[in-house]
Amino acid sequence: MDSVLNAVPEIEQGLSDAAHSKITVSFTPHLMPMVIVALSIRGMQSTIYVEMAPGVTVEDLYQQLKISYKDEEFVKLLEKGVVPRTHNVRGSNYCLMNVFPDRIPGRAIIISVIDNLIKGASGQALQNLNIMLGFPENTGLLYQALFP
């Protein structure tokens, strides 16, 4: 992957020359080892680029996310440096996330993963129903719903 990322300055130079102005490229290659079961791909990874306010650091953003999600059972901020992986959320209602520095100064990258068949649809509906009916938020959501 390093060889691919090393090509970014050349890509930026070529695009900048063609556009006659400075072009900055955000390029993130993803290796997505997915298991296909009955033609159903489970897992979604989101890569989110954040432009931070002047003076804000990646560490500041990490700490704010840690505070924001500390009481959320199904959203977990991973230890620093750990990349979220779709296979870690397969069959669950969890969202795993982390923050990384971007190569572009003043920006950060947030990576999150969910099982799009659970957290992205049915698990989210059940979680909302639990809240609406006054049940514990995690009722029916702590067991892996996988077949086969």
TrEMBL record:
<protein>
    <submittedName>
        <fullName>Uncharacterized protein</fullName>
    </submittedName>
</protein>
